[in-house]
């Protein structure tokens, strides 16, 4: 990137990047405890919910490549701020719309905003990590996970306290808006190019990184979209407590990422990636093999701990490669990876409709084995 405005403060840019990741995680996870309520409100079956949540993935996937272009042309500050405001405007619709078509339309726009926030935050993180000249990517992603804990946990607690979903999301909106104002001045506002192409075909190692992201995001999406429904279907928790599974997952992911940069520095990317992927696969086996609440929560914890540093390693690798500009590479692997979010809800919902949700999770567990099998391709 080439600066076109006033000099930045690196410490302030690091803090603002952390806040941006926190905002993105909080905004996304706010939706998790609301999914079972939306299903109940619409009286929808698993197949219908899968198709409704497909709209979220479609919005994210379509926006991600464009987000890289917009960040290159207008800078991360503008694009991230606009995307965040769009997400905030959509939150009330997610708790009031009661027909599958209307909720799907709202989720499409909501997903587009979340997708833009995710890509731009990672582009910003790649640039700041380069400027800092030390591994800090996992630490940024830890703030995304902390935001996930906050979003899912706070909304779940507000619902348990018998606040209406609309009041709960209004509280979240005020919190996010305040954080955005706090971070705004520290976000880098310069652009990489005023004439970046609207589409770049991924190539070389970027395709590989994107494929691995694809698997990781399917696994993460299964936790976000279906963990609450799995718990309620097994009659292990009531609807108001449905977010506890994702909250457990997010706590484990946070803890793993807080130590991620230190682990990568000590053991190398290959070792961390291999062990992490094995732990995540083991966690999915636990989730589908036992039906008591304590063991399932342990399984959710293992999945979160395992997935914690996989995606940060992949994004750092995208920033270091030289085949494509870093903004385009990050957008590309985000797009390929988030196609897992696009396909995941419908894929899991379709299998659950034909068989059971447990069988759907078993299929995701089998798919997860591709991560450790591919870890040899991750360079030290």
Detailed description of the structure:
The chain is mainly α. It has a single domain (about 10-190, about 205-375), classed as Growth Hormone, Chain: A. Helices cover about 80% and strands about 0% of the residues. It has 16 helices and no strands. The chain has helices at about 10-30, 35-40, 45-75, 75-95, 100-130, 135-160, 165-185, 205-235, 245-260, 260-265, 270-290, 295-305, 310-320, 325-355, 355-370, 370-375. The longest helix is centred in the N-terminal third of the chain and has 33 residues, at about 100-130. The two termini are about 25 Å apart. Residues about 1-5 have low confidence and may be disordered.
Average pLDDT:
85
Total beta strand runs: 0
Separation, N- and C-terminal Cα atoms: 26 Å
Text of the CATH class: Mainly Alpha
The helical percent reads: over 70%
Q: What would you report as the Rg, rounded to the nearest angstrom?
A: 19 Å
How many domains? The number is: 1
Q: How would you sum up the major sheet?
A: none
Q: What string, H for helix and E for strand, traces the elements in order?
A: HHHHHHHHHHHHHHHH
Number of helices: 16
Name the poorly predicted regions. 1-7
């Amino acid at each position: 990137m080439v600066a076109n405005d006033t000099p930045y403060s690196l410490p302030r840019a690091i803090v603002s990047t952390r806040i941006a990741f926190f905002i993105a995680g909080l905004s996304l996870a706010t939706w998790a405890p609301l999914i079972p309520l939306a299903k109940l409100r619409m009286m929808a079956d698993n197949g219908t919910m899968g198709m409704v949540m497909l709209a979220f993935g479609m919005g994210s996937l379509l926006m991600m490549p464009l987000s890289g272009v917009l960040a290159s042309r207008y800078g991360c500050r503008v694009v991230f701020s606009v995307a965040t405001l769009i997400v905030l405007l959509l939150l009330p619709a997610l708790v009031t719309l009661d027909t599958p078509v209307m909720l799907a339309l709202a989720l499409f726009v909501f997903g587009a905003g979340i997708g833009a926030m995710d890509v731009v935050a990672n582009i910003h993180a790649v640039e700041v990590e380069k400027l800092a000249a030390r591994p800090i990517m996992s630490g940024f992603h830890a703030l995304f996970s902390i935001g996930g804990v906050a979003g899912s946990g706070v909304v779940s607690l507000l619902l348990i306290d018998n606040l209406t979903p609309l009041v709960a999301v209004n509280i979240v909106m005020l919190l996010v808006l305040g954080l955005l104002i706090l971070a705004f001045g520290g976000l880098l506002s310069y652009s990489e190019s005023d004439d970046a192409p609207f589409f770049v075909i991924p190539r070389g190692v970027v395709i590989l990184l994107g494929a691995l992201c694809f698997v990781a995001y399917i696994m993460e999406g299964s936790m976000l979209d279906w963990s609450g429904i799995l718990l309620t279907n097994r009659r292990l928790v009531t609807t108001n407590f449905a977010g506890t599974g994702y909250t457990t997952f997010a706590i484990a992911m946070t803890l793993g990422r807080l130590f991620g940069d230190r682990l990568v520095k000590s053991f190398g990317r290959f070792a961390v990636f291999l062990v992490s992927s094995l732990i995540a696969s083991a966690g999915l086996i636990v989730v589908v093999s036992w039906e008591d609440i304590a063991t399932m929560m342990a399984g959710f914890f293992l999945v979160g701990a395992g997935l914690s540093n996989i995606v940060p390693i992949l994004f750092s690798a995208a920033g270091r490669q030289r085949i494509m500009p870093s903004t385009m590479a990050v957008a590309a692997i985000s797009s390929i990876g988030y196609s897992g979010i696009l396909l995941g809800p419908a894929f899991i919902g379709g299998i659950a409709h034909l068989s059971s949700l447990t069988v759907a999770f078993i299929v995701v567990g089998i798919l997860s084995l591709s991560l450790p099998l591919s870890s040899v391709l991750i360079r030290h």
